[in-house]
Write a structure and sequence with these properties.
The protein has six helices and no strands. It is an all-alpha fold. The termini are far apart.
């Protein structure tokens, strides 16, 4: 990836993270912050969203939980299904 592509990707990520934080229910805030600290997990979720820009129905809980990501992130998502639902709802609403 070139420098401009990297800068664009960072800008998009920052915008998405800002939107997630702004709309996050208080009870999910700690779990969301933990997830956002895991760059590999964020990249995996971002890849799922990017792959389904034209087919938002492909962004669902099963797809998120089936992503390749560090086990700690998977464990967090399994333990916090409301966070998975929040991520899916937010992504789909932004694409619809």
């Amino acid at each position: 990836m070139g420098l401009l592509q990297n800068l664009a990707a960072v800008a998009i990520r920052n915008k998405v993270v800002g939107a997630l934080r702004a709309g996050c229910p208080a009870e999910l805030s700690e779990a969301l912050e933990t997830l956002l600290e895991d760059k590999a997990a964020v990249n995996a979720i971002q890849g799922l969203v990017a792959a389904n820009l034209k087919t938002p129905a492909g962004i669902n809980a099963a797809a998120v939980l089936g992503l390749e990501m560090p086990q700690t992130a998977k464990d967090l998502l399994v333990a916090t299904p409301a966070l998975v639902d929040y991520l899916v709802r937010t992504a789909v609403s932004k694409l619809s």
